[in-house]
């Protein structure tokens, strides 16, 4: 603005005319001066940048604070000056030489024109320099100043696992990866190969071709040599049963005296029966004896079969292999005289995670007490004495499951001896397995593998439409061999009835749950296996281990509560290399929870979504209404019958406690010899 001459009224007479050239040169001088100032400022900034990062930030912060503070002070000062100027003088310049606000504004505008947006005088620069050096001297060297760090995402802390858990023997999980025929394990007994041929088995599944030779080798050594305990985690239907049945039979075949040498523990009776059948099948042609202790026959009968008495040697064990459940095992260990586990060579725990999770009746403790030496191996040391005495080493523990716990604390309870872990990775071919093993060390923990042949789907359904969707899929989409899981006995019964009414008798629906008698359950499973039932509705009683061939579809009608339950449910299909589909019905509110559940097991990938629209189900509207009324009537009838039964039970009195009977007997003076003949309650 200085380029223009401002002429105000009354000013001309006081001011001398301005020389244009002088004015221009003074302006150039000013520009030069400012240039120098700017250079100095740049130098200062350079110094700041060279300072260590924390210090630098502190310095910059302080400089900024100083600048802000200074601006604020200036502002305040100007304000007061302005007020003063306004009060004292109305002219452009006050007596004290303070510039008026108008003049200041003019100057500022001039600066902008010259390219200076904020002049810094010498004093100011010096002050900033001083502030920098002050802050720098205050920052302690060698310490991290908290709060000045940039926040970066912390990497996840990995569990530190015991060596054997972190370094497993990896087995291929792909059932198409069958390279070993039954003749390719040279150490396998010829009679067992024959049995395999008879059962139409030509190839070994990956888990079998890894575990069988390993176990055979471990038991070729003398009895005093203690083999490593083994944990095997392989998908459902991958043939884990034969992986232990064959080596056990081969190891015991050549025994001289009969003793209980193998103990197989399973969580439930139905599973024990299944394993018992496999042992019986492969023991054909040997003189090995297998017994099932689960309560299928009476306790006394089991005792008689288990322990025999001879006039020469007294009591002796008449079986080689015991298949049992934890509860029944403890009963026999306590109440069957002569039942001995002193010669036990194998302790097999199938569905190990379930058995370990609820160690019923502390069965392992009872087993330990009955085994010759401490099962944990703490007491038996290998010495010349123990070798001479021919004391057999403690039994080898073999743990099998599709969802084996890899929680070191839980496994610790079992007192495993130098354990080895065999685990699977889905989709890996055997050749690649050892290479990938180096990459996955420890990373498989908590992840569950499912059969590669399994297709997983989920369907979002309104709860009231679930039965209709299921019926529609079975009847219209022609689904066959459907195994449907619910979360309770009540739901199982209701759904089975509803499906029957919906189909008007066209669908053959079976139901199975803990509420039904054992013989009825066995019959129903048989009918389903032989294809006489279209659908089998089940509670989680069948979810684990049960091997029903040719299940095409598994439907989780109610969402499973735990990921392990889900893995075992869906594992009832796609067994032994066959294809299968698993469908989970989800209500909208359950979708997220279900996905989180799958994520915890690293299983969220590969679950397809599909839906059935309302219009697809319209044709079922009337049938559904009728089915619901029929269901209600049926349930009401059942309830009435149940209450009648209960009433009858409550009013029931044993004959001998009948008052009239007692009175009659007292009259003839037989009170003392009165015998109580109570009727046995069912
Ligand atoms: N080598 C094989 N060739 C063909 N079929 C086999 C072979 N091994 C086992 N099977 C069959 O595969 C089915 C599943 O085997 P098994 O019950 O042992 O599986 P699993 O791994 O124990 O499953 P789960 O974890 O569900 O108990 C059985 O019907 C069995 O007869």
Automatic annotation (TrEMBL):
Under catalytic activity, the entry for this protein gives:
ATP + H2O = ADP + phosphate + H(+)
In terms of SUPFAM superfamilies, this protein maps to: P-loop containing nucleoside triphosphate hydrolases
Cite the InterPro entries for this sequence: DEAD/DEAH_box_helicase_dom, Helicase_ATP-bd, Helicase_C-like, P-loop_NTPase, RNA-helicase_DEAD-box_CS
Q: Compositional bias (Basic and acidic residues) at which positions? A: 8-25, 38-69
Q: Which parts of the sequence belong to the Helicase C-terminal domain? A: 464-618
Superkingdom is Eukaryota
Q: Which Pfam families match?
A: DEAD, Helicase_C
Residue span(s) of domain Helicase ATP-binding: 221-422
A single Gene Ontology MF term assigned here is: ATP binding
PROSITE patterns named in the record: DEAD_ATP_HELICASE (PS00039), HELICASE_ATP_BIND_1 (PS51192), HELICASE_CTER (PS51194)
- Annotated keywords: ATP-binding, Helicase, Hydrolase, Nucleotide-binding, RNA-binding
| Recorded coiled-coil stretches | none
* Enzyme Commission designation: 3.6.4.13
Positions with biased composition (Basic residues): 70-79
Q: Where is this region: Disordered?
A: 1-25, 38-119
Q: What does this protein do?
A: RNA helicase.
Stated family? Belongs to the DEAD box helicase family.
**What's written under domain?**
The Q motif is unique to and characteristic of the DEAD box family of RNA helicases and controls ATP binding and hydrolysis.
Q: What is the official name of this protein in its record? A: ATP-dependent RNA helicase
Q: Which organism is it from?
A: Gryllus longicercus
Lineage of origin: Eukaryota, Metazoa, Ecdysozoa, Arthropoda, Hexapoda
């Amino acid at each position: 603005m200085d380029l223009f001459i401002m002429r105000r009224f009354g000013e001309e007479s006081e001011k001398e005319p301005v020389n244009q050239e002088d004015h221009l040169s003074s302006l150039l001088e000013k520009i030069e001066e400012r240039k120098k100032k700017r250079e100095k400022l740049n130098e200062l900034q350079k110094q700041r940048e060279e300072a260590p990062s924390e210090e630098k930030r502190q310095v910059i912060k302080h400089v900024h604070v100083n600048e802000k503070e200074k601006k604020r002070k200036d502002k305040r000062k100007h304000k007061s000056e302005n007020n003063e100027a306004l009060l004292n003088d109305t002219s452009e310049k006050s007596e004290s030489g303070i510039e008026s606000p108008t003049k200041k504004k003019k100057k500022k505008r001039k600066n902008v024109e010259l390219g200076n947006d904020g002049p810094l005088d010498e004093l100011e620069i010096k002050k900033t320099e001083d502030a920098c050096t002050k802050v720098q001297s205050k920052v302690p060297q060698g310490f991290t100043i908290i709060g000045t760090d940039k926040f970066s995402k912390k990497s996840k802390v990995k569990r530190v696992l015991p060596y054997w858990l972190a370094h497993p023997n990896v087995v291929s999980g792909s059932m198409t990866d069958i390279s070993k025929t039954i003749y390719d394990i040279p150490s396998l007994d010829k009679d067992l190969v024959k049995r395999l041929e008879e059962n139409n088995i030509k190839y070994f599944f990956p888990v079998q071709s890894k575990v069988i030779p390993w176990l055979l080798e471990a038991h070729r050594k003398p009895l005093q040599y203690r083999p490593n305990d083994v944990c095997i985690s392989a998908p459902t239907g991958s043939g884990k049963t034969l992986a232990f049945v064959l080596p056990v039979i081969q190891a015991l075949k050549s025994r001289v005296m009969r003793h209980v040498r193998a103990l197989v523990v399973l969580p439930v009776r139905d599973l024990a029966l299944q394993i018992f059948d496999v042992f019986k099948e492969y023991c054909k042609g040997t003189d090995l004896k297998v017994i099932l202790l689960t309560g299928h026959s009476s306790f006394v009968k089991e005792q008689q079969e288990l322990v025999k008495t001879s006039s020469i040697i007294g009591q002796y064990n008449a079986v080689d292999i015991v298949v049992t459940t934890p509860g029944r095992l403890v009963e026999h260990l306590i109440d069957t005289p002569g039942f001995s586990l002193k010669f036990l060579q194998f302790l097999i725990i199938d569905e190990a995670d379930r058995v370990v999770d609820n160690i019923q009746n502390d069965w392992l403790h009872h087993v330990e007490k009955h085994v010759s030496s401490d099962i944990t191996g703490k007491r038996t040391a290998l010495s010349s004495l123990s070798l001479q005495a021919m004391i057999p080493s403690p039994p080898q523990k073999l743990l099998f499951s599709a969802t084996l716990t890899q929680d070191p604390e839980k496994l610790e309870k079992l007192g495993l001896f130098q354990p080895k872990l065999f685990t699977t990775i889905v989709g890996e071919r055997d050749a690649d397995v050892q290479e990938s093993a180096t990459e996955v060390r420890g990373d498989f923990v908590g992840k569950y593998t499912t059969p590669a042949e399994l297709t997983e789907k989920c369907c979002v359904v309104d709860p009231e439409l679930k039965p209709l969707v299921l019926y529609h899929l079975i009847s219209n989409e022609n689904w066959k061999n459907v195994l449907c899981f619910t979360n309770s006995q009540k739901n199982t019964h209701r759904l089975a009835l509803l499906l029957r009414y919906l189909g008007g008798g066209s669908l053959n629906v079976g139901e199975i749950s803990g509420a039904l008698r054992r013989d009825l359950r066995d019959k129903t499973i048989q009918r389903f296996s032989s294809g006489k039932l279209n659908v089998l509705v089940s509670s989680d009683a069948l979810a684990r281990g049960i091997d029903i061939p040719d299940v095409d579809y598994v439907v989780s009608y109610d969402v499973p509560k735990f990921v392990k339950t889900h893995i075992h449910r869906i594992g009832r299909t796609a067994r032994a290399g066959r294809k299968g589909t698993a469908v989970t019905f989800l209500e909208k509110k359950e979708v997220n929870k279900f996905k989180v559940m799958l994520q915890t097991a690293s299983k969220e990938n590969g679950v397809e979504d599909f839906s059935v629209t309302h219009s697809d189900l319209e044709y079922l509207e009337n049938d559904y209404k009728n089915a619901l009324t029929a269901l209600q009537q049926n349930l009401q009838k059942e309830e009435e019958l149940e209450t009648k039964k209960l009433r009858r039970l409550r009013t029931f009195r044993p004959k001998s406690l009948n008052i009239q009977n007692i009175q009659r007997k007292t009259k003839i003076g037989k009170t003392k010899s009165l015998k109580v003949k109570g009727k046995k309650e069912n």
